[in-house]
């Protein structure tokens, strides 16, 4: 199989303008230079000899062999424990190799000092089940997560503390995070990859827009996680929205959705670069935010990994989009063709918000001041595995791509994309 991936992008839909349908686009990919492979990143324990997971500037390796993981999100605390096995096996049957999941602080410590790791909130039992089923885990530990959860996952009691500055290196906030991280670490004990467990990666924070000024905070979170025992092969942050990316310390992750139900206006959305092949990673319709002046980290020194490719979207009270079964397939294929070496979905399996002792757990405008309101219970997300556990039409579409990646991922990962003209004649049709 050739070493380079030559992409010729010739879109031709039945409704395309006749002039475009007759146009031929050619790309000369004969002089693509072979990239230098390096391992410049300061990550955690890579695991046992012969099975070490490492990340170079282009892709992930396991035992020295290139790999292209397929990852899907499932929130254990949004799914009844009795259904975990069924959902996990359906994800595995669809070609998912890694389960990504948030650990929502408010789901586990709604009342200060009273931690709940039982029933549907039993993270340790979930990790053991993933190990039993031969699935890896990417844990998104926050402390702020969002995920359309109340306060982004922060407990109400935390935000009521006087003089506290959340999501910062404020010593008071740090103390509470330390206690929370210790709790998570206890759940992971013996289940990290270095110990033969399924946890191969950890995401710190989520959609953190601190720019250069937030790098010390991300570094502190990583250091604290490791000190508390959460020593994994790699650490990551989301890369969009003026993200704080301390160089060589974390891997920025990317995404793209078929819709934008979080958009506060009611205007019709007629285009999205999530559906096209492109050189930029920080595109799509996820909020990018303006970077602070002078802060322009070079994200091209990192491998192109995704964590939030949408097969669907959660609905809001004011926006209720309906998606095609091939929307998610189109997005995943476009990112793969654009050079993505980890395909990660948000969500792959829907769920239901738990009801707390003090409040409901959904993000909303009336109580938490968020700019959108979401359903109180349903978190179906219109994704591949519905809230009920039923398989959506998109499930059968996307699994075909996953089987291809599972089979040829080690050959695909070292390939370099060659992107054609960036002008998109279908910008009003997407």
Structure summarized in a few sentences:
The protein is α/β, with parallel strands linked by helices and 430 residues long. Helix content is 22%, strand content 13%. The strands form four sheets. An eight-stranded parallel sheet has the order 11-10-9-8-7-6-5-12.
Tell me about this structure.
By secondary structure, the chain is α/β, with parallel strands linked by helices. The chain is 22% helix and 13% strand. It is built from nine helices and 15 strands. An eight-stranded parallel β-sheet has the order 11-10-9-8-7-6-5-12. The longest helix is centred in the last third of the chain and has 20 residues. The chain is globular and about 60 Å long.
């Amino acid at each position: 199989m050739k070493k380079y991936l030559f992409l010729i992008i010739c879109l031709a839909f039945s409704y395309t303008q006749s002039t475009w349908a007759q146009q031929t686009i050619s790309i000369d990919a004969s002089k693509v230079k072979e990239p230098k492979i390096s391992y410049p990143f300061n990550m955690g324990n890579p695991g046992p000899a012969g099975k070490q997971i490492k990340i170079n500037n282009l892709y992930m390796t396991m035992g020295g062999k290139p790999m292209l993981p397929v990852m899907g999100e499932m929130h254990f605390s949004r799914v009844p424990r009795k259904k975990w096995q069924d959902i996990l096996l359906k994800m595995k049957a669809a070609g998912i190799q890694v389960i990504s999941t948030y650990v929502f602080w408010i789901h586990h410590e709604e009342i200060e000092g009273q931690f709940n790791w039982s029933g549907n909130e039993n993270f340790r039992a979930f990790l053991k089940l993933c190990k039993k089923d031969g699935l890896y885990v990417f844990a998104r530990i926050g402390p702020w997560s969002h995920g359309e959860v109340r306060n982004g996952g922060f407990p109400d009691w935390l935000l009521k503390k006087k003089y506290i500055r959340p999501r910062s290196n404020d010593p008071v906030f740090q103390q509470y995070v330390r206690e929370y991280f210790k709790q998570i670490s206890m759940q992971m004990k013996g289940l990290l990859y270095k110990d033969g467990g399924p946890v191969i990666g950890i995401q710190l924070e989520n959609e953190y827009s601190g720019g250069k000024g937030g790098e010390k905070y991300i570094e502190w979170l990583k250091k604290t996680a490791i000190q508390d025992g959460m020593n994994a092969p790699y650490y990551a942050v989301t890369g969009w929205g003026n993200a704080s990316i301390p160089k060589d310390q974390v891997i920025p992750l990317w995404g793209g959705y078929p819709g934008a139900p979080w958009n506060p206006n009611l205007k019709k959305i007629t285009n999205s670069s999530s559906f096209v092949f492109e050189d930029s990673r920080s595109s799509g319709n996820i909020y990018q935010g303006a970077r602070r002046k002078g802060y322009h980290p070079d994200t091209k020194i990192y491998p192109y990994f995704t964590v939030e490719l949408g097969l669907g979207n959660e609905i809001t009270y004011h926006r209720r989009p309906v998606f095609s079964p091939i929307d998610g397939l189109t997005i995943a294929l476009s990112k793969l063709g654009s050079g993505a070496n980890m395909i990660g979905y948000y969500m792959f399996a829907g769920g239901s918000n738990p009801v707390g002792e003090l409040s409901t757990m959904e993000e909303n405008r009336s109580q938490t001041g968020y700019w959108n309101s979401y359903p109180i219970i349903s978190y179906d997300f219109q994704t591949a595995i519905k809230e009920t556990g039923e398989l959506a039409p998109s499930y059968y579409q996307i699994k075909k791509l996953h089987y291809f990646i599972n089979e040829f991922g080690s050959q695909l990962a070292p390939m370099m994309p060659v992107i054609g003209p960036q002008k998109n004649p279908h910008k009003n049709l997407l």
